[in-house]
């Protein structure tokens, strides 16, 4: 069977960062204004008063200290609480295309590839900014890549599922080399007025080059030993925004047209599924957990990652074994595990094993076991 490798990665990080304190100050101003505007109804018991948020809660419950965003001003304006993202003309690159190009160029440089070496582009992320044409085709054309391109969405697991799709294309000869990108604009579909989730997400874009070992010439290559994907339907993480919304106007402004979740249930149900999947995946490849040098886990919640790593290893993992980026980036959906991989891979030695693992809405879980060559 053809050896398939990851030969380069790239990362686009927006310039603006929002600290917990900044986010909480804006949220609490909104709460004060709401409660005073609705004082009579609250007093009469017709509606509930809103409760304030707190930085201490956010850091303790999630491990998040800050997040990068495309636009800071609109999010922090208590009268608006959503980013300002101006519509662009059809003649300009879309925002997701621009994010993808920045990350892709870095990944292509690391892999030593030009557009002529790449045969396919996959854009894999939680939300596409339009229905069609596919953002992937726009990215493909902007970079001057021949061949084919398509978009796919498996929420937080889009990148690992995208790596498998890329590896399959290389293995079966459909492409020599694939560019897989994850432009995540999570701030666009986050409800900044919801105390339970306003702190969870940030924006970023990652890129991965997947190619045949035969064509790879970068100094760092990671052989894909196997990809394992799993989906189990759950209503605990949902976003009901879609093209049919306009057909029933009564639902247009309901909160379910943005990200909603039952965070406690997600935590409880997903952690054991992920730990079991990594264990099973290792067994299928006749590998042991103690051979794993690194786990680049989905970055949603610090306690979740510590619990999963502990279940896999049978002991607490060190930060070196399960690196954390969510303190700075928050949850960037599918980009999270790839950001961790991008930042914390260089120190591995030839022969070292690692797993890139995502989990999220669907539910969806993806694990990619790799070995540094
Ligand atoms: N400030 C202060 N207090 C708060 C706040 C706040 N902001 N929010 C809640 N509280 C209070 C609650 O009211 C509650 O009070 P009480 O005990 O009196 O009822 C108390 O704090 C505890 O609340 P929770 O039970 O909600 O707190 P948890 O400890 O469970 O932490 C988390 C909440 C952080 C959400 C945690 O449950 C978690 O991380 N769960 C897993 C989440 C997860 O991994 N989700 C995956 C979704 S990501 C995904 O799949 C991608 C989707 C696509 C991307 C979407 C982009 C927008």
Automatic annotation (TrEMBL):
<dbReference type="Pfam" id="PF08545">
    <property type="entry name" value="ACP_syn_III"/>
</dbReference>
<protein>
    <submittedName>
        <fullName>3-oxoacyl-[acyl-carrier-protein] synthase III</fullName>
    </submittedName>
</protein>
<dbReference type="InterPro" id="IPR016039">
    <property type="entry name" value="Thiolase-like"/>
</dbReference>
<feature type="domain" description="Beta-ketoacyl-[acyl-carrier-protein] synthase III C-terminal">
    <location>
        <begin position="283"/>
        <end position="371"/>
    </location>
</feature>
<feature type="domain" description="Beta-ketoacyl-[acyl-carrier-protein] synthase III N-terminal">
    <location>
        <begin position="150"/>
        <end position="217"/>
    </location>
</feature>
<keyword id="KW-0808">Transferase</keyword>
<dbReference type="InterPro" id="IPR013747">
    <property type="entry name" value="ACP_syn_III_C"/>
</dbReference>
<keyword id="KW-0012">Acyltransferase</keyword>
<dbReference type="Pfam" id="PF08541">
    <property type="entry name" value="ACP_syn_III_C"/>
</dbReference>
<dbReference type="InterPro" id="IPR013751">
    <property type="entry name" value="ACP_syn_III_N"/>
</dbReference>
<dbReference type="GO" id="GO:0004315">
    <property type="term" value="F:3-oxoacyl-[acyl-carrier-protein] synthase activity"/>
</dbReference>
<dbReference type="GO" id="GO:0044550">
    <property type="term" value="P:secondary metabolite biosynthetic process"/>
</dbReference>
<dbReference type="GO" id="GO:0006633">
    <property type="term" value="P:fatty acid biosynthetic process"/>
</dbReference>
